[in-house]
Design goal:
The chain has helices at 5-25, 29-56. By secondary structure, it is mainly α.
Amino acid sequence: MRAFPFDQAADYRRRAHDAREMAAWISLNDARRQLLEYAQHMDALATAEEQKALQIAPIQVSGAET
């Protein structure tokens, strides 16, 4: 079963956050760089999921009639 786009986006953002936290503790420059690149990739995936979700089901304003 596929997760809802916003749930998937939240998971990507959590993974990006975790990678950045690990990168802060790693002393090897190459490993730190790889973690930060991974974090950027996860952020990009999250943004794409959020955009996809908004295209599928735009947020409706409360009280607005369609």
